[in-house]
Specification:
The protein is built from seven helices and 16 strands. By secondary structure, it is α/β, with parallel strands linked by helices. The strands form four sheets. It has a six-stranded mixed beta sheet with strand order 5-4-3-2-1-16.
């Protein structure tokens, strides 16, 4: 089976209304070009790293302008949309970095809250404390969508192979890695990590990215990437400008890669060190 997927690269602004206005034309373009599975990056609704400004923007998912707008677009266009993440308010009032899988009828069929928080001090002097902004999730998610099984991850999750292995063992054929990667870490690690996760799991890895300099002052790497189960690059936006990457995913390639290198089946339990 062939799944025609589109990865939208964005430069999301600092409000949900602005986020929808920015991403909607890219989604429409992707659908017009034949995509049935459309993916957007982390922070699709808005990006804001100032805690007070973040809190002022946060709403529940059912009230978020961008989430509602993309649900309506999915229904209007008859496509699956994976919102790489939207920054939303949890029932307990805390913030979540949450991925949404939206069916062609506009219904949300699955969500995933980012597990791993980006708490780092980079050699460049740049620091991040994502745990000061968001409450992490505690559950891995695999969902049927667009005729395939999707495993959901977000950005920094890419550095944790055990999560990706668990998703593949649970049947994921496609693993999503929507991101807002920093420019220093993107230049050093982005492509290597994505290709490694694809090879290790024998899965397609689809990484829709944020790119450029944003209203909240951050810079993101862009370079949206699609990787096949054998590790070859299916397509790449080799820049940080907004755009759409279209790729055809032959799901038989997953079975072939896992048969050739049965790492998922060959793994053994061990003790120590």
């Amino acid at each position: 089976m062939i799944v025609k997927a589109a990865l939208c690269q964005t430069r999301t602004p600092a409000t949900a209304a602005g986020g929808l206005a920015h991403v909607a034309p890219l989604v429409r373009q992707a659908a017009a070009e034949g995509a049935t599975l459309i993916l957007t990056p982390e922070g699709t609704n808005f990006l804001q790293r100032d805690r007070s400004l973040l809190d002022a923007q946060l709403t529940r998912p059912e009230d978020d302008v961008c989430v509602l707008g993309l649900r309506a677009l999915a229904s209007q266009l008859g496509v699956w949309i994976v919102i790489g993440s939207a920054l939303v308010k949890r029932p307990d009032g805390q913030a979540a970095n949450r991925e949404f899988v939206i069916a062609p009828d506009g219904m949300v069929v699955a969500t995933y809250d980012k597990l791993h928080m980006f708490d780092v001090d980079l050699p460049t002097g740049e620091t991040a404390r994502e745990s000061a902004l968001y409450t992490p999730g505690d559950k891995a998610v695999v969902v049927e969508a667009a005729g395939a099984r999707l495993g959901l991850t977000i950005c920094y999750d890419v550095r944790f192979p055990a999560l990706h292995r668990a998703l593949a063992v649970a049947g994921a054929q496609i693993i999503t890695v929507p991101a807002a990667f920093t420019r220093p870490t993107g230049a050093a690690h982005w492509e290597i990590l994505l290709r490694a996760r694809a090879i290790e799991t024998g899965s397609f890895v689809l990484a829709a990215a944020q790119g450029g300099h944003h209203e909240d002052g951050r810079g993101t790497y862009g370079r949206t990437l699609a990787v096949a189960p054998w590790g070859e690059i299916l397509g790449k936006l080799d820049h940080d400008e907004p755009g759409v990457l279209l790729v055809d995913l032959d799901l038989d390639a997953v079975k072939a890669a896992r048969a050739a290198i049965p790492a998922l089946a060959n793994a053994r339990p061990f003790t120590g060190p």
